[in-house]
Design brief:
The chain is an alpha+beta fold and 77 residues long. The chain has 2 helices and 2 strands; from the N terminus they run E-H-E-H. A two-stranded parallel sheet has the order 1-2.
Length: 77
Amino acid sequence: MPHVIVKLWPGCTEDQKNVLTGLITRDVMSALNKPESSVSISMEEVNPEDWPEKVYKPDILNGPGKIFKKPGYNPFE
């Protein structure tokens, strides 16, 4: 515990993903006072044209109570 899932558009390099993984790991350890061994992170690439149906609707729009930081965009506007 905890497991963090990052959904992002394709195009980031492995180096960028590794940097993000390190930053998330560090911040999770700091915020939750957990050891590095307890943190796991996965990344799921989602194509931009699939984002509204595969991410925005199920995870953001229909995820009340789960979202702690809402985005400043709406792909349906």
